[in-house]
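Protein modeling request. Please complete all fields; requests missing the sequence field cannot be processed.
Requester role: graduate student
Desired output: 3D structure, token encoding
Chains: 1
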Amino acid sequence: MKNLISELVKKGPIITDGAWGTMLHALGLKSGECADGWNIFNPEKVKQVARAYADAGSRILLTNTFRANRLTLKAFNLDSKIKEINANGVKISKKAIKDRGYVFASIGPVGSSLVTNKISDDELRELFYEQAIILADAGADAIVIESVFNLNEGYLAMEAAKRTGLPIVLSMTFDKENFISSKNNFHTVREYKEKLSGADMIGINCGTGVEDSLLHIKRLSTYTKAPLWVKPSAGIPSVVREKIVYPTTIKNFVEYSRVLKSLGVKFIGGCCGTTPEYIARMAMTLRNNSDS
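Delivered output (292 residues):
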């Protein structure tokens, strides 16, 4: 399985998927509701999202398991359903992608308990491992540690996930000032260079949009020789007439994806605000412009 990444790199760029949360909210997910819980309570709508991205041209599908660790699920009284929620997340994506691509299971940050130092490194490591092994046993082809805004947490998650034997993607989130989180910036990334080398792929996701992602990935690439993974957001949203609107148009997003390809990024997709329409146009453009 470790050869999977190198084989995919040879075929690059590989189109990944877009935002899951954006799509689920459009299908009725309420603010404050546990999106991961939909894997068992509303699976047909999760399947709808997975199929839409697969049909749009995604060759790597993530899973609706971003916050499906035991601690986060406990806040929704769903910790007893951890295995079912994570396993169903993988199964839904595998059924959607079929033989057209691969499933990279999503693991996101724990959140507030880490920030307030209420959980030890050992506890955090085991928390991530519990989720990772369920995802691996369910048939995931790789694991994506995404939206990393605290490098220590990201490292512990990667360390735990590597115990599954699956390839690992470590994807960080930066803001306009190049900070991952409070007091964590590119200097910190450099300090963690040796530890981050354990990832099979390194990149960025979400953040402030495609334009800033170009700067971040250029700088990040100076710290690693691993294949690059980029899933930028469609920008910082605003509320217009009671609707959330993202500033980056499909046309602009696609143009920036061409630049990412020219920079050597091998895995390109989208995050918050992007939809199957973004992915379809990007897939068509990148595949029709092999020299771009």
